[in-house]
Amino acid sequence: MKLLKQLCEIHAPSGEEYRMTEFLLKYIKKEKKKWKTEPEIFYGEEFQDCIVLKFGKPRTAIFAHIDSIGFTVRYQNQLLPIGSPDAEIGTLLVGEDSMGPIECSLSFDNENHAFYNFGRQIDRGTSLTYKIDFRDSKSFIQTPYLDNRLGVYVALQVAETLKDGVIVFSCWEEHGGGSVPYLAKYIYENWKVKQALIADITWVSDGVEAGKGVAISMRDRNLPRRKFVNQLIEIARKRKQKFQLEVEGMGSSDGRELQVSPYPFDWCFVGAPQQNPHTPDEKVHKDDIKSMISLYEVLMKDL
Amino acid sequence: MKLLKQLCEIHAPSGEEYRMTEFLLKYIKKEKKKWKTEPEIFYGEEFQDCIVLKFGKPRTAIFAHIDSIGFTVRYQNQLLPIGSPDAEIGTLLVGEDSMGPIECSLSFDNENHAFYNFGRQIDRGTSLTYKIDFRDSKSFIQTPYLDNRLGVYVALQVAETLKDGVIVFSCWEEHGGGSVPYLAKYIYENWKVKQALIADITWVSDGVEAGKGVAISMRDRNLPRRKFVNQLIEIARKRKQKFQLEVEGMGSSDGRELQVSPYPFDWCFVGAPQQNPHTPDEKVHKDDIKSMISLYEVLMKDL
Amino acid sequence: MKLLKQLCEIHAPSGEEYRMTEFLLKYIKKEKKKWKTEPEIFYGEEFQDCIVLKFGKPRTAIFAHIDSIGFTVRYQNQLLPIGSPDAEIGTLLVGEDSMGPIECSLSFDNENHAFYNFGRQIDRGTSLTYKIDFRDSKSFIQTPYLDNRLGVYVALQVAETLKDGVIVFSCWEEHGGGSVPYLAKYIYENWKVKQALIADITWVSDGVEAGKGVAISMRDRNLPRRKFVNQLIEIARKRKQKFQLEVEGMGSSDGRELQVSPYPFDWCFVGAPQQNPHTPDEKVHKDDIKSMISLYEVLMKDL
């Protein structure tokens, strides 16, 4: 879990993913020699801060977003949300501006507007993220930003043995999107890939429990094509994978942007459930991490 | 009206349009020999569950969505809406799961959450639609799903005599869209078609009455380019068509996705008005169906 | 300021930009001979009512939207908003229908629905805009539609000395967009341009004052890529430009559509702040207009 901890500690809210990009490029360039198949790596200005890995002859792509929620410093101590953070008064936030490193605490006024408490003014536009407190117990990992550092981690585990497939590290997922449209265009136009799995983190709910396996989400706010979802479920059953079926009316993912892209993508959200989403206390059962990696390995083979 | 009744009876909520696709393909392949111009048929994996018909040298496309509203079964008897159904307690819903056919009734809890009453648990993710009660009276057709089986029906009537044009059967219109982007791309890039008529059903309103003719919608939540709308109105007047002008602030259609597509589409919603939209009692005046077919025939010639 | 007044007086709400298009084409064709670099002009059916000017070897595009907010006449004296107008009872609205020119006044019923007072019925679908009252004082310009006639004006001033760059006049910005997707596609696919500056008008706020210089908006509802925004700020500082930093949680612009386009655009909103946005009394400090022109000149050179 050392890698997962490292990923969580990188400051990379939506729009400022470049630190994560740098870490991943360094990691991938070093590790790929040990992987079963060495992928081609696509990145640079045409990809903004995204990375695409191409293994063999791909049929299916894994999308893992590398951005996180957080806050932007405004003026008069005000904070604006990046994505939809859910944190209490006193939560520790970290960042850096022209004066140096920052560790401040979150507060709210009577109208529930967020602001910061700190000994000095912070530069306008500075981004702040939750201070990492990585808790590794017998059964659970608890830390800010399992959403979606865990999706990135799973993708990197699957990369080790992947023969044919694409892994996409996308940006801005937590705040309006914007990278998936050109990433979808690239992988469809170059390799005709139009099957996608969204490696992201979902919620423990009335119907999905911690420790009962990765969730295959049959729908959220968006409706993936049922034929594709059924195909996934059939593979998971045939290959005796541990999994749960989620059926949600809310929430969205990189899948939404694939759905409305000008390419006929089929997609499905497949991810471990967590408690306390978007808080500094996101918590995932270790068995569900294993189950997520296992199901991705199987799906990338059989789809 | 036998064909319209058949179309209404097909279970095809957003995301599960494939039964309608199969019916239409069979119907078109059989009937097209009798049509004035035999169209080329485009379908298959690159089109998901959509169908495109190309007649002669097309200048204008008709878009008719083939999905309907409905519900998805969650857990603990909960139902999630597909699109925005508007139905009362006791409404009969039908579908099928691994245990067999389902006919259950709709209910609501105190917080207005939908659930089902049925003798057994229904599989997670099962979709349910209104039970069809097709009422054919002297002046009116009343049944669930005139929106948009009537649009599909009109397109199929127009197909019989169409010389030049495209007919597009699209998916997901009721729930966030997602097929129009690639359909627009296909017809623009291959045939330079950038004029579109949205064959869908609108509302009887303070300014639009049943029996007074098809509505040309000058705007809804979206604003089509006025120059194009004016051109339609001029043709309708010159050709002495019976029609009404609608001006709305709400509601949307496949036109929205054409508007924001990366192609310079002009579009206009042209459809019969109905009472009780999205309920099991949608009701359209027969004169307005005739008027809709007639106006489409004229527009496809003169545009 | 004669040109700015002329621009404000043109009736061109979203969806009906063609009068502005005609004015601009005439103006540009006449004036371009005096400009340092003569641009190529792209317009016509493939561009709907938009215009693209290409100067030299472009690296960066200026986007200035040419539409305005307003109202659409419905029936029974009702008005529907185009974009989000903010006006009081008694505001004078102008337009034209089949019976001739219109000058009517705005009213509201108890439920805050807009309607018009006029001696006769106005044709369905007629668009109305604020009557222009152009006020030119020592320090301020005050008039309806500084948003975005001032952005258009600035772009035309910058055009006079521009060597390399694109100027895009876009449509529908105030009401859902729809032209930026194909404009972005055009300039990226033909000239690989993927840097964009949004020449639009922002708000005077708690942190941005009138007369203190043009605002560089670090974010609004959308998050531009931070690396690009930082590059702009660095250039502005190095070149000793007068400017202010805005950090907002609301508001949007043509930048949103660039962000979600299937091209890897970097964008930033750079515009003068105004008081009373979307009212008939929009007001901008003259120093901020100068500062906006100056910063655009510098950015188009150095980016």
UniProtKB/TrEMBL annotation, chains A, B, C:
Protein's UniProt name: M20/M25/M40 family metallo-hydrolase
Native source organism of the sequence: Chryseosolibacter indicus
One Pfam family hit: Peptidase_M42
CDD domains (alphabetical): Zinc_peptidase_like
Top-level taxon in the UniProt lineage: Bacteria
Database matches in Gene3D superfamilies: Zn peptidases (3.40.630.10)
Keyword annotations from UniProtKB, A to Z: Hydrolase, Metal-binding
